[in-house]
Amino acid sequence: MHDGSENSDDVGLSTQPRKPRKGIYVLPNLFTLAALFGGFYAIVMAMNGRFDMAAIGVFCAMVLDSLDGRVARMTNTQSAFGEQMDSLSDMVSFGAAPALIAYEWSLKGLGRWGWIAAFVYCACAALRLARFNVNTAVVDKRFFQGLPSPAAAALVMGFISIMTDAEISPTSMAWPMFVVALFSGLTMVTNAPFYSFKDISMKKSVPFVVIVLIALGIAVVNIHPPIVLFSLFVIYGMSGYAMYIWRRFKGEPTSVISTSTEDPDERGLHR
Description:
It is globular and about 50 Å long. It has helices spanning 5-14, 26-47, 51-74, 80-105, 112-135, 149-165, 174-188, 208-221, 225-250, and strands at 143-145, 193-195. Helix content is 66%, strand content 2%. By secondary structure, the chain is an all-alpha fold. The termini are far apart.
């Protein structure tokens, strides 16, 4: 005869709550994938000699990259997967893409010096992103440690965009491109503090004059977008060094690290 023990065991197993499956948040990762596509599109356009479209691809990736984190925070959909995906997307769009485009545009005319400059930029972008991931918990949120990779990409692509718009021969711009690539790459791995704009809240009320200034700023950018935007990024690229010198002059700490890490394997990364 059946004693029912088998059935009772089956019932007991079937009534146990199942663990929810781990999934991936769609919305913020859509922005990240779109930014990745922008970098990939830029590389393809450069291979076809369309450097104007390559610059647009990288700049679109910049806009999308600035949105994915904000969207994740606004919708409470942050995840470790999203953080890693964002870093990998940044490496393609702001590391590999600008380096390859700069090389294809004019650096290849310098022979080995050209690909060395392109590699230095690409390697510095990887190092900067890796250091950023390690230092996330200890860096003062108001500042970036070194030039952000999107801003470095904007310097490289802005220079190419201006020269392309002016119809200047890429061959004659090989050494200036060499300087821009090295400056952008090495500035990413410096300890100079660059203002992050993360403490600016869009939810706070502002005086009316601020809206007027924003409108004037948009009008100024539209005078000649490539030159104006490139000039702004050049100023931003120099601002970190200016702040570093100013802090040294006043005797203030130049490091943006707010606390020290106890991990001996990572201690050297935070200085």
